[in-house]
Write a structure and sequence with these properties.
Blueprint (H helix, E strand, L loop, with lengths): L18 H29 L4 H25 L11 H36 L4 H26 L2 E2 L12 E2 L2 H21 L2 H6 L4 H11 L2 H17 L10 H29 L1 H4 L2 E4 L3 E4 L3 E6 L2 E6 L3 E3 L7 E4 L9 E5 L5 E2 L11 E2 L3 E3 L3 E4 L21
Antiparallel strand pairs: 1-2, 3-9, 4-5, 5-6, 7-8, 8-13, 9-12, 10-11
Helix pairs in contact: 1-2, 1-9, 2-3, 2-9, 3-4, 3-9, 4-5, 5-8, 8-9
Family: Belongs to the SAT4 family.
Main location: membrane
Keywords: Membrane, Transmembrane, Transmembrane helix
């Protein structure tokens, strides 16, 4: 009777294992992502109230962790080894978990993108065209998430034939589905990346601050790179061993976890600024010359011309000195810098406006501290009437 055991094509074939490709990034992100979400929630609650974007990010983390746990379980059943050396119960269990992991991965990734777009909507809520574009992209992502999830569940009929190879069934072409999902995901990543940059470059702020905003909005570059590498791995590789050819799975893990990290990183800066303001507070140089104008305001010459902001000016007059101080905080003329707070949630003035607005959220705000030094003007003594003309009749 012929042996039912698979023949080893070369020595060491049965011992080959790529499980570390899955375990290392999964362990790292499973620890990092909840920590970053905790920082995000803390920073948001310290400055404003939570909104729908925060709750969606928490839901994205739930599916994120669920997917990571599934990958742990897949490794336990031999994921990373050659499929023809695995016992059938382990092989079927690994494929079944991988089947459901595809579903939770799609939900986690798309919810993360929706939360990131809602962050952009809060920042640039005053730009109607941007808001409509972002909301349209959110609707597209949600609809695609639903449709791709349904297709993923119904990829085989009956569904169980997707992982139990003993069950005959009809399946869609998985490679076409994977490639299409990867290309659409890459396209939405690129759209999310470039969407805010025209508005950032159009802000009336110094070039140095525009450069400082680039990392905040440019974090999506890492997501685009990971998504592109995932698409490349799917296009050039021909998966013949579903538990061993896992380069696409590696980039999948990196893509959805890295997207969540990029979503939470701006809040880390907010916490650092709040904790160590002297170190992490952004500075744009020396205070610019300001002059007091009628109507309790001051003007400032800068990028975009002369602009006026309403300001309440407190005047402290010291007659023993030849100068007095006028300032928003009553500080002396110590040469302190004007500062801009970038993406501080809860600050007044969303969307980088020059004039603080009523919206609260993760706005790009400008804070200008000004000091004015002047010499008091002594009023002239009243003129003494000449006695010779005191009794002259008035005309």
């Amino acid at each position: 009777m012929a042996s039912q055991q698979p023949q080893q094509p070369y020595p060491g074939y049965a011992d080959e294992n790529r499980a570390h490709w899955v375990l290392i990034p999964t362990i790292l992100f499973t620890i990092l992502c909840p920590f970053l979400l905790a920082i995000r929630i803390y920073a948001r609650r310290a400055t404003t109230t939570l909104d729908i974007g925060d709750w969606i990010s928490a839901l994205a983390l739930f599916f994120n962790i669920a997917t990571n746990v599934m990958f742990f379980a897949m490794v336990r059943h031999g994921f990373g080894k050659h499929s023809d050396v695995l016992p059938k119960p382990d092989l079927f269990a690994a494929l079944q978990i991988w089947f459901f992991g595809q579903i939770t991965h799609k939900i986690a990734l798309h919810l993360t993108k929706v939360s990131l777009l809602l962050l952009y909507v809060r920042i640039f809520s005053h730009v109607r065209a941007f808001k409509l574009t972002a909301m349209s992209l959110i609707i597209f992502i949600i609809l695609y998430m639903i449709s791709s999830t349904i297709v993923g569940i119904c990829q085989c009929i009956p569904v169980a034939s997707a992982w139990d190879l003993n069950i005959p069934g009809k399946c869609l072409n998985l490679y076409i589905i994977w490639n299409m999902n990867g290309i659409v995901s890459l396209a939405t990543d690129v759209a999310i990346l470039i969407l805010p940059f025209p508005l950032v470059f159009g802000l009336h702020i110094p070039l140095s601050q525009k450069v400082m905003l680039m990392p905040v909005f440019g974090l999506g570059v890492f997501i685009v790179v990971a998504s592109a590498l995932r698409v490349h791995s799917l296009l050039v590789s021909h998966v013949t061993d579903r538990t061993y050819d896992i380069i696409g799975t590696l980039w999948t893990i990196i893509e959805y976890n890295l997207a969540f990290v990029c979503l939470c990183l701006p809040s880390v800066r907010v916490l650092l600024v709040k904790t160590w303001p002297n170190i992490f507070k952004s500075s744009v140089g020396r205070s610019q010359t300001s002059g007091v104008t009628p109507g309790n305001g001051y003007t400032r010459s800068g990028t975009g011309g002369v602009r006026s902001w309403p300001s309440k000016i407190g005047l402290e007059l010291d007659t023993r000195r030849r100068w007095s101080r006028v300032g928003g905080d009553g500080t002396g003329l110590d040469g302190s810098d004007s500062t801009d707070e970038i993406l501080r949630p809860g600050e007044e003035g969303a969307g980088g406006r020059d004039v603080p607005g009523p919206e609260a959220g993760a706005g790009i705000t400008r804070t200008v501290r000004y000091d004015v030094e002047f010499e008091p003007v002594t009023p002239p003594a009243p003129a003494v009437a000449r006695s010779g003309r005191a009794n002259e009749p008035q005309d």
